[in-house]
């Protein structure tokens, strides 16, 4: 703002400012709504330097996506630099920023071939001299690439990255980067810990909540380009015209941000919605119904992405109800979608009606033989591990095992098995661990990431899905730190080869402060947090020890009920002699589903990583661990370590308290409101980590009949107490 | 702010201001979160005048409630006047504001007797000269009265009321002014249309969301002094220690604002929670269990308010399960609460297992004979009408019929039968109509308001409950205009003799703008809105014609199912000859439950108000109405009128659009964001009003077999179409 105008506006500003600061109470506080797009002022020296470079902006506004990029840049720069940039049609001064495509800018037109190489969504950011001017280009072949590039530049500004010798070339490594919302039409979110669904079906299509646009902005900022609006445990009603009109309104809001809408399809919809007597995929009437339904959907949503399907799993209908295969089921929908360019994301998370000897083997058993049987617009979506989003699992054996079939990764962002929203658990390391796992499918170095990005087998149809942790909570994700999991998922979906630590550092800098004195301790907390949860919940390869149904809190004693594979004892198999699930040749032989090199390592008790020991082996309590301790002692030690790790996070967090003397040290420190909430949540986590430790130790001691190692305190209550605790209203339970 | 400091801060202000305006996107917009406490700047001339008067403030901060009053005043004045007031221990300049009690201020001490007359929560606001100074006093006997007085003064400032000759004396006419939250422990709100429960049980007690404080502020601003935290269809778990700890944390937050916490008690809790084999109120073990449970509750919440109970109604357990009366059930709990000063709010909303000849007679039948049988700390809570929160009902016949029993009013604020959150229906006129109804219990002029405020029968225990419309939606109530219903309930609970129009005017001035050009049209919309809904849903005394279960949309054809009194045909009784429920002596004789003068009027087809005609009479289609039209024509005309009334609201609203040329005319006009949302909601309401009209006309025509009056258009679809519509995911359904 020119100085003269500033003075003229001075009185008005001061008055309005004061009003703004108070008039809605906490509404003006840092409540987390802004996510990583806070755009708070840079330190003044840096702001001055950047202002000089970025004073003038050339950015087209001929399309909705162009306007989104331009508006975001104006919003971001105004916040970061303290004043709005000047929008020009050409750079008039010494320097400036030019956004666009070869069609919108004569300066960018010569880059056409280079941009084409970057593909759909790719972009470059380059600093160059042109006509004596110092120019930064954000250029792409498509508008959406320009929007992604604008967010990239804003991220560099927010994190304090240098802008000299700028030469960024980015293209997405994965085609479908999708959030799966397990949202029911009545607003309930299955496994949701962040309030109710973001989609207010009742006021759609008339009212398009501005929050939908902010959701789209956040996703575009990390490259997410798809959203499945409804739960995989789907209601057929989501395909009824009334709801399609509403979904179309959402699609209209998301479209400028490059986000396509998908729907979960209930396989029996032809019966429930269409009045047919069968949903048999080979029935011509069923095929006609789906074709008409898909045509109808595209009449509402011309760029509809396609269907996500959970079939023949946990009671959902599917092709096996008619003696047909998953491929025949998927192909039914794929054929209907193909003329419109839509895809089917067919989930491999299946398990049989009859309780199997080892549930983790089911998906491989059912799908391996179908390799090559799917249409070209089908992608099979497998969870990261063979069971169900545990704190730690080995990678899913299907990865690398279906070379003729595109495989899509399904991560869970919402923390169903990881303490819900109140536990600080950064999932970046979990995602990274899976993606960096070596399937050995084509020899050493055949990582899961290469399966997912299509390079291993040469697939163009690639995808990564994240089960969203988003609801209408003001923080979006139920806690401030859970925003990092949404963020990390998006970044890794864009490029699965990135480092979880680097992503955490970007996120912390944007979300809290770029000050290294803030970023460093926060990143350290985040990077250790997942291992802490593994330790206090399911150390050494244990899994599925959570309480029944809602999965809140410990339940290693869970037994009985409708299915053995919904119990804890089925998985830990602890007895007087030892603990763990024997998945070697002497047991379920699940290990044989991996490539020989992997199977050999996992199947050998002396080679398997200790982190997966009890996943693959039933191990005697006396087994000598790397630490030199017997397994029993090691197990107890890990539980205690988990609790200590949470205590350490609390200590670290306390050093960042802005109302402590430390404030002077941290000019861009954390605001008191967010600090207080996170501190309270860490208190919950510490209390519950202790509960996990006490209950688990108490239970396993009742099985092992061994004394606690020296220095380990006895649980304060008898086992019956922990077993008696009930939480009938724990959030997110499936229903 | 002094000019010198202002200039020094100028640059900083402008920069931060710019940042504030952008850095969180829509978070800074007028999103409704601030409710009627927006405290936006007054017009500058008025601000200058008020600033002079209110520059100096003396306000104690020795207790939490004192601090709440002081902080609210600082927040409010800073926003309204553009700068913070100066806090002093005595007024030093020519004028100022003094808050306090006889204990905190020597200037107030002499008013002790006068303040005592105003009772608990009462206050006075008076302008006077003292020691040559022009002083405004906000004085009360108790801190809470001072807080109420502070809010009153802020309301006067917000609405532009004159401050000269200020002499306000206020005391609450009703003792218990309570919000009933029908919130389940899993966050679901029964009949809730504003997101999920405000109470995040999962993060309590560690995390006390600042929103709880804003909830308390809003309630205190209108005098609400109690909150029932959980659904009347109660889970026994809400009385378990884990939840009591959480409720205690909420009580801690609400206490400084004068709000007591209550809980809905499940009558069978001794069985479900205590492991007893009976919940018989005469069983000594049951009595001991409740006494211990109540003692335990008070150990957590020393000022616990008491229990709300729904017993032997809609499947809830109760004393009749053991052959005991409602009085015996209520007294069981009352005896346990009495030593601690707690009360029982025992609901009269009951109906028998067997479908009665006329459900509206049940409550009177069951309770009338119990008059005098309840303990002194029991208050019987009756809904405003004898059925269930319909758009229009006559007042409940119990009002005036139980002179020896305190009766509490239960209004519904959430619009279960009035279009949910998307219909603009201001309930002030509904409340007012009921409160001003004359029971004739002690002769003419025995209004329901006098029953409720205790003056008719001399009861000290008095109360008014409102079933809350509050959830975690950003607007709190699911829409901007539904905030007015929360507001009006609170104001009428404080003083049931107030005018709904005056309250609407206050609310509109604070919520949108004090400009009469804004207030006038908005108040007109509000005051007509309830009659519009009556017309397009249930004109002329019709009732309970909503679709089954969720009550979303028209269902006059609803028939069959588990109970006749859950159907529409049970209530409208339309046939070839006429329509309406004969509740005269020739029918159910429900009219006889009213005092003779009332019964005579309602029971006479020539005297009954047309608005209640079909409530009390089965009327031939040819019956001549006041308009001169036959009933059939009148009925159809009313439906059409309802639609036209919504269209008229849309027209009015369009004139307030700030992006239209009208902006110049309205300097403090409505912000674009709220205007847009309300416009979208009015679109929904218009569409649904038309749907109501078309479906109802279509159905009733199928019964009456009469032609539509000239000028009335035929419904665009056949009746079967309207009957085929299904909404399995409509919000708020009981479950």
UniProtKB/TrEMBL annotation, chains A, B:
Signal peptide residues are: 1-29
GO MF terms held by the record: hydrolase activity
Cited SUPFAM superfamilies: (Trans)glycosidases (SSF51445), beta-N-acetylhexosaminidase-like domain (SSF55545)
User: Where is the Glycosyl hydrolase family 67 catalytic domain positioned along the sequence?
Assistant: 157-476
Ranges for the Alpha glucuronidase N-terminal domain?
Answer: 35-153
Question: Which InterPro entries is this protein grouped with?
Answer: A-glucoronidase_C_sf, GH, Glyco_hydro_67_aGlcAse, Glyco_hydro_67_aGlcAse_N, Glyco_hydro_67_C, Glyco_hydro_67_cat, Hex-like_dom2
Enumerate the catalysed reactions: Hydrolysis of (1->2)-alpha-D-(4-O-methyl)glucuronosyl links in the main chain of hardwood xylans
Glycosyl hydrolase family 67 C-terminal domain location, by residue? 477-711
EC numbers on record? 3.2.1.131
Q: Where on the tree of life does the source sit, at the highest rank? A: Bacteria
On whether Signal is a keyword of this UniProt record, the answer is yes
Q: Which UniProt keywords apply?
A: Carbohydrate metabolism, Glycosidase, Hydrolase, Polysaccharide degradation, Signal, Xylan degradation
Concerning Gene3D superfamilies, the annotation shows: Alpha-glucuronidase, C-terminal domain (3.90.1330.10), Chitobiase/beta-hexosaminidase domain 2-like (3.30.379.10), Glycosidases (3.20.20.80)
Protein family (similarity comment): Belongs to the glycosyl hydrolase 67 family.
Subunit-structure text = Homodimer.
User: What is the name of this protein?
Assistant: Xylan alpha-1,2-glucuronidase
> To which species is this protein native?
Stenotrophomonas oahuensis
Give the classification, highest ranks: Bacteria, Pseudomonadati, Pseudomonadota, Gammaproteobacteria, Lysobacterales
